[in-house]
Design a protein that fits this description.
This protein is an all-beta fold and 1105 residues long. Helix content is 1%, strand content 37%. Among the domains are: 11-213, Jelly Rolls (Sandwich); 721-848, Immunoglobulin-like, CATH 2.60.40; 854-995, no CATH class; 1002-1102, no CATH class. This is Right-handed parallel beta-helix repeat-containing protein.
Length: 1105
């Protein structure tokens, strides 16, 4: 069957569509010649050769640009003819003549009378021709009816395939043949009609759609049978089997016999779905060939209602295979039951689109191919699987691998459903990988030019879901480089609203320059898993602007996973330079939003992500936000110098950031809040160092803001004198860098004054960062919600950076509303300018409202026999176990009874020595000489635990700080007790037992505009009835913040009386003498023995409205 006009490539001239048309006049398009008229043609107006006319000289054929068929080995001419006279007319009629002169021409003419039709080719005066007998062409010569004529020549063939004539796609058997010669000498002209006649001839008829083809070997074979027979005469360019039908096998055999691009189409009679059952492998396609199943009646690419099924019934060969082919492709087939649905080996420029590979014709039922749906291997490059136009994508599901690309570069995968049903709605996964890529460069999955996340998966977007791994870069002999995954839905349905998860979304073992951008990814194990396996290198990965674990609407977790992004190296592999930016990362409830793991991991940059939340601050948390489990992992950045680089790491179940054994990691400008444990945890004592944590917003985390965790302690790592643990290997992460300790902070107008001190290793420089907070951490050591100030070039131990008297002053500062707590960190610098930053400390003791947290201690010296030692917590209900006070040196008071015996706490002493010769305070019941102190004592200015010099077996009357100075401006006490209650330090022994007294003085509170009406005080408390105890409360109020001269009142409005709190929830009406004043203060007094203390669970003062 001849090639159709629309599929030949190239067409050098056609009056049908004016492709590279000749110079005017053009037949059917405005011819002006002798006695020509125009009549209704096949596709438009046609030229009619009227009576007495001779010919129409159409024009010169282009000779070199482009090269025309007459300068090539093969060519064809095709046109439609409608005769006005009978085939036996007594005159010779030339239908066309391509002519230089009489010695160089190709012409088709009917001899006069009932004689043959001749096709002659003359070159340099020598003529070869074929003749078709009168009886053979007569059925096609019908007055008033159109007949398609086609002439072909091929100098590479011998008789009878050198010259051919087809009439309405049939080839009448010629009676005379002869081989053609070389190309014409000179530039030919096309003539229609009798170029050599006298002009007295009668009308010969109309000619239309005259087309010159440049490649007659580009044929279209029409498969019209589901049989699996071979061609009866391979190489004759005619698809005919012994059963006189054209089968797919025969069509491929004929196409392989030529070198140019052929086409196979399907017109199998019978309607409905046609299945071709193969008993053995089809021939491997070795020349360019297009196979198009969409020509079968009823086929629809958009709905994937395809009507030609290729069934291998478990053959171990590919369904359709190409080898060393440039161009061609497969379209519109259902393919299953083979080792590989389609295979390209050493083939380029191919196209695979609108196929269902691995499922039955319904696009739902699992059938499969045992190795892959599509394989590209052995340098099969620049092929396209799918397309961006609706319907061009393939459904590639239920195979072992969906697409397998091996050692093949620059291929494109677009618009496919890989691992789902044909509607992209639910799983029909490939058993192993949706797409597997090995040692291949430049693969484009999706659209490399996209700059936004698709609203739904259309166009170039692939749905890659329901597989073990969505996309897998295999560790082969070489890395797969410069690959792009952009604009796809991976692990979700086509809408992005429902999960159809892969175990792994994108998995890579050996790659460089991999871009994973603008995708939706959900997974069971990991959405992006870059694992540098043994001896492999992963470098330059970009993960940008993806929705990971969240639906397309951005408000719901799609799938609980292990680690959303997992970057991994080992002792014998490496992972370098990974950029994770602008993503939403949620739902990793068994692991981390981002997990960076392995020894040889460096250059990881994590910026501008939402981790555990979205832009609306929804609680969509991971277990950990970011987790570095990477001994010696170096030079990684979380956030950056630009505030826009910061990540929002919130609502995760445990740590916001967990850094284990990392080196030189910068954490800067991030927001880390509402996480279920520490905001940032550093661990790994032996190697974790030089991790810098500055300018972040860290707040409302359940644990500490920054925790330098050691093997011995998972709470505040208290300062040591001269920061000597910084010089002892293995002491703790970041060398347990000492932190600043703030004694108080005052804020007047827009001026903040910060008091405190800092001491660390001598001879180094430090940077101090200060933060404001609305709430204080339960430890009393603060978080850092709002960065407000930085000091660089601080020299510690000079002797101490002391700002307890002359404060650090920050002017022109507007604190956020409600921010009254000030915290600080210290970071070691490499030089005075602090351009190089190393270890950052935990947050130091928080200063606020003019007091240290805990409000203070008083020693009652008015009755020396019974001195009282008061310590109170910060408020009630959730009382922290941290207190601070001034030390008073008074020779009349023996404050250090029990200090002479290490580890023995005297029941009559305030402080003693623990087993490490550090000062302790308080009393806990236990066996004699083996009791545990309730508190440790620390020097607040230097921030290190107090050691005392007491002489040899001599009781001292002074508390001596470890620096051997007498007295100290401040110390603070930290409880080891797990109970959060108001605990009172014991005082001197009395004749009636071991009395304990306590008093808590609240801050002065601004209650706003006074409104006088019903006010109340309500509390909840419990009292140990066996041991006894009492809690009392007093109130005072005034019109200014200075209430020092105001009286204290109880419930009856009498000065000096108390609200006496009973053993259960009760309440009092506040007396009128207190009401109506703006400022209010209360104090709580407790009294009990040493063995038990009442607890105050909550107190509510209703004041004003």
């Amino acid at each position: 069957t001849p090639v159709s006009r629309t599929s030949a490539d190239p067409i050098w001239y056609s009056t049908m569509d004016d492709v590279a048309a000749l110079t005017t006049p053009v037949i059917g398009k405005g011819v002006t010649a002798q006695n020509l008229t125009f009549v209704s043609g096949v596709t438009g107006s046609s030229a009619k050769i009227d009576a007495s006319s001779e010919y129409a000289a159409v024009g010169a054929i282009p000779y070199s640009t482009p090269p025309v068929s007459f300068k090539k080995d093969m060519g064809a001419i095709e046109f439609y003819y409608k005769p006005d006279v009978s085939a036996s007319v007594a005159q010779t009629m030339t239908l066309f003549n391509v002519r230089v002169d009489a010695s160089n021409q190709l012409k088709l003419y009917k001899q006069s009378g009932s004689n043959p039709m001749w096709l002659e080719y003359t070159h340099s005066g020598s003529t070869k021709s074929i003749q078709v007998p009168y009886t053979s062409f007569l059925p096609y010569w019908n007055i008033g009816s159109w007949t398609k004529f086609r002439v072909e020549w091929d100098r590479t063939k011998s008789t009878p395939d050198d010259l051919k004539l087809f009439l309405d796609n049939d080839r009448p058997t010629p009676t005379k043949t002869g081989a053609v010669f070389s190309d014409m000498a000179g530039d030919p002209t096309l003539y229609i009609g009798n170029v050599t006649n006298t002009g007295s001839e009668q009308a010969m008829g109309a000619i239309d759609d005259f087309t010159i083809f440049g490649d007659p070997d580009s044929r279209t074979y029409v498969v019209n049978s589901t049989l699996d027979e071979g061609d009866s005469d391979i190489g004759d360019l005619e698809c005919y089997t012994a059963s006189s039908v054209c089968t797919l096998r025969a069509a491929i055999q004929e196409a392989n016999s030529t070198t140019n691009l052929d086409k196979i189409v399907f017109e199998i009679p019978g309607g409905d779905v046609q299945t071709i059952n193969l008993s053995n492998a089809l021939p491997t396609i070795t020349n360019p060939l297009e196979i198009d199943g969409t020509t079968q009646a009823g086929a629809d690419c958009v709905t994937k209602d395809l009507r030609v099924v290729l069934d291998g019934d478990n053959l171990t060969s590919p369904g359709i295979s190409f080898s060393n082919v440039s161009g061609g492709g497969v379209m519109g087939l259902v393919i299953h039951g083979f080792s590989q649905g389609i295979n390209y080996t050493s083939s380029t420029g191919g196209s695979v689109k609108c196929n269902v590979i691995g499922l039955a014709q319904d696009g739902v039922t699992v059938m499969g191919n045992s190795e892959s749906g599509i394989t590209l291997e052995s340098s099969s490059s620049t092929n396209t699987i799918g397309g961006i136009v609706e319907g061009e994508g393939n459904v590639i599901s239920a195979n072992y691998n969906g697409i397998d690309i091996k050692s093949s570069n620059n291929n494109v995968i677009q618009g496919n459903y890989i691992g789902t049903n044909k509607g992209g709605e639910y799983s029909r996964g490939n058993t192993s990988k949706g797409i597997q890529i090995d040692n291949s460069t430049g693969t484009e999955i999706g659209d490399a030019d996209t700059n936004s996340l698709p609203a739904s998966c259309t166009g170039a977007c692939n749905v890659i879901s329901g597989n073990e791994s969505g996309i897998y870069y295999f560790k082969g002999t070489s890395a797969s480089n410069d690959n792009v995954i952009e604009g796809n839905f991976i692990g979700v349905d086509k809408t992005g609203e429902f999960q159809v998860t892969n175990n792994y979304g994108v998995r890579a073992s050996k790659v460089s320059n991999l871009s994973i951008n603008y995708n939706m990814i959900a997974s069971v194990v990991s959405s992006v898993y870059a694992q540098a396996e043994a001896s492999a290198v992963i470098s330059n990965i970009t993960v940008d602007n993806n929705y990971i674990g969240i639906n397309r609407s951005g408000d719901t977790v799609l799938m609980d996973s292990d680690n959303a992004i997992w970057l991994y190296s080992s002792l014998v592999s490496s992972l370098t330079t990974a950029n994770v930016t602008n993503n939403i990362i949620v739902g990793a409830v068994r692991g981390s939003g981002i997990n960076v793991q392995g020894v040889n991991t460096s250059g990881v940059s994590i910026k501008s992500n939402y981790i555990g939340t979205n832009s609306a601050d929804a609680g969509l948390g991971n277990k950990y936000g970011i987790y570095f489990l990477s001994p010696n992992a170096t030079n990684n950045v979380i956030g950056g110098a630009n505030p826009a680089d910061g990540n929002i790491i919130a609502n995760n179940d445990s740590y916001g950031i967990y850094l284990y054994a990392t080196v030189n990691t910068l954490t800067r400008n991030n927001t880390i809040n509402n996480n279920g444990n520490d905001g940032i945890l550093l661990s790994g004592s032996t190697v974790s160092k030089n991790n810098t944590i500055i300018e972040n917003s860290i707040y409302n985390n359940t644990g500490m803001g920054i925790n330098l965790r050691t093997i011995a302690s998972n709470k505040v790592s208290f300062n040591d004198k001269d920061d000597t643990d910084s010089t002892t290997a293995g002491d703790g992460p970041n060398d347990l860098q000492n932190f600043p300790v703030l004694t108080k902070a005052t804020y007047e107008g827009t001026t903040l004054s910060i008091y405190g001190g800092f001491q660390s290793e001598e001879g180094k420089y430090y940077r101090l960062d200060f933060y404001s907070n609305e709430l204080n951490d339960d430890t009393g050591f603060g978080e850092g919600e709002n960065h407000i100030h930085t000091i660089t070039g601080v020299e510690a131990n000079n002797p101490v950076y002391d700002f307890s008297v002359t404060p650090i002053v920050v002017t022109s500062l507007t604190l956020p509303s409600g921010h009254k707590y000030i915290s600080a960190t210290a970071t070691e610098c490499g030089e005075v300018a602090c351009t190089t930053l190393f270890n950052t400390s935990e947050f130091g003791l928080t200063g606020f409202d003019g007091h240290i947290i805990g409000k203070g201690l008083e020693l009652d010296t008015t009755t020396p026999t019974y001195p009282r030692f008061y310590v109170a917590g910060d408020g009630v209900g959730n009382i922290p176990d941290l207190f601070a006070f001034d030390i008073l040196s008074d020779s009349s008071l023996d404050l250090v009874m029990g200090l002479n015996t290490r580890g023995e706490m005297s029941a009559t002493g305030i402080v003693g020595l623990d087993y490490n010769n550090f000062a302790s305070a308080g009393y806990a019941k236990g066996e004699a000489n083996n009791v545990s102190p309730q508190y440790q004592i620390f020097n607040i200015l230097d921030g290190y635990q107090c050691g005392y010099t007491i002489g040899t077996n001599v009781k001292s009357t002074d508390i001596k700080i470890g620096s051997n100075g007498v007295g100290s401006k401040y110390v603070y006490i930290v409880s080891d007790s797990p109970d959060e209650e108001l605990t009172l330090m014991q005082g001197e022994a009395s004749s009636s037992g071991f009395a304990k007294y306590g008093e808590y003085l609240s801050e002065v509170r601004d209650m706003g505009t006074p409104i006088q009406y019903y006010h109340s005080l309500i509390w909840e408390q419990s009292i140990d009835v066996n041991e006894g105890g009492e809690i009392k409360i007093q109130l005072r109020s005034g019109d200014s913040t200075d209430l020092s001269n105001e009286e204290w009142y109880g419930p009856d409005g009498t000065r000096g009386t108390f609200f006496e709190l009973g053993a259960e929830t009760e309440g009092y009406v506040i007396p009128k003498v207190i009401q109506g004043k703006r400022y209010l203060q209360y104090r709580v007094l407790m009294e009990t023995n040493q063995n038990a203390s009442p607890t105050l669970d909550s107190i509510t003062i209703r004041y004003g409205n």
